[in-house]
Amino acid sequence: MIDKIDMRKISILVIAVFFFFGCKQKFTIYPTFYYWKTDYKNKKAETNYLEQFKSKSLYVRIMDIDFNPDIQQPTPVSPINFSDPLPKQIDIIPVVFIVNHIFDKIDTKQSDLLADRIAKFVDAKVKQAGKSNYTELQIDCDWTKTTRDRYFSFLEELKKHPILKGKTISVTLRLHQVKNIISSGIPPVKKALLMCYNMGNLRKYGEQNSILDQHEMDVYLKDFLENYPLKLDVALPIFEWAVVFRNQQYAGISKRITQAKIDDKKLFKQRGTSILYDLLLDYPAAGLKQGDVIRWEKISPQNLFATSKFLSRYLKPEERNLVFYHLDTDLLKHFTNEELQKVIANF
Question: Of the N and C termini of the chain, which has fewer Cβ atoms inside 10 Å?
Answer without folding.
Answer: N
